[in-house]
Amino acid sequence: MITWLNHIAIAVPDLSEATARYELLGGKVSEPQARVEEGVTVAVVTFPNTKIELLHPLGEASPLIDYLEEHPRGGVHHLCFEVEDIDAASTLLRSVNCRILGNGGPKNGAHGKPVIFVDPNDFHGALVEFEQM
Amino acid sequence: MITWLNHIAIAVPDLSEATARYELLGGKVSEPQARVEEGVTVAVVTFPNTKIELLHPLGEASPLIDYLEEHPRGGVHHLCFEVEDIDAASTLLRSVNCRILGNGGPKNGAHGKPVIFVDPNDFHGALVEFEQM
């Protein structure tokens, strides 16, 4: 079902510092992009086999504000796996008692593809996104 | 400097459950391996572009015991990036005020290669391992 690790998302308190750090380490870093609907500003770091998405709060309703209050240094926010069929993935995940966040079904994700997020309580404490490619 | 994401390590309270989950999701899962020196039992999940290492405490002195007390559901324990030269990586990381855990220099890692771990306080709240390949 999982075909690829799409990205690791890391919440950071200082986006400029974080992008400079990953550039120094050899990553190819994008310009920061506003994802208004998600309430985040994102800089994408590309490595040969995967990507890091550096996330910073955007706007007063950003869900990352609470996250960074709890984790002021930042932290690994979520992992994103690619799948071929989001409905088949949802069915499989529900069959092993994984609750899907939100309305329980796929929504349109940041890359314009259907995604689901699984409750971290049901996935070894990690917030995991599945994205149909 | 970073050439590849080697693995994401996830601490899990129930290794059998976690390996079954990742097999169901299409990962190729190894037999659990005891890494006595590190105090962990590891099952390696292989996906086309990277690996997940599922970690479970081994022995009474395992550093994962404290981790799982703090994170009883489990959690993303660390990320491991491959580098070409561990000494050059150490110098570069120190130049941006990253403290290297342990004695401050490389040690022999789980895959038989030199590794360093950077203090999460200095790396956006994430424990990051660098491994010379």
Keywords:
3 helices; 9 strands; homodimer; alpha+beta; 2,3-Dihydroxybiphenyl 1,2-Dioxygenase, domain 1; 133 residues; nine-stranded mixed beta sheet
**Which CATH architecture of chain A is right?**
Roll
The chain pair forming the largest interface, with residue counts per chain, is: A-B, 34 and 34 residues
State the total count of DSSP E strands of chain A: 9
Count of DSSP-assigned helices of chain A: 3
Report the top-level CATH class of chain A.
Answer: Alpha Beta
Strand content of chain A: 35-45%
**Computed CA radius of gyration of chain A, to the nearest angstrom:** 15 Å
Order of helices and strands of chain A: EHEEEEHEHEEE
Helix content of chain A: 10-25%
Quaternary structure of the protein? homodimer
Shape descriptor of chain A reads: globular
Tell me the name of the CATH homologous superfamily of chain A.
Answer: 2,3-Dihydroxybiphenyl 1,2-Dioxygenase, domain 1
List the helices and strands and how they pair.
The structure is a homodimer of 133-residue chains.
Chain A: E1 2-11, H1 15-24, E2 28-29, E3 33-35, E4 40-46, E5 51-57, H2 63-70, E6 75-83, H3 86-95, E7 107-108, E8 114-118, E9 128-132
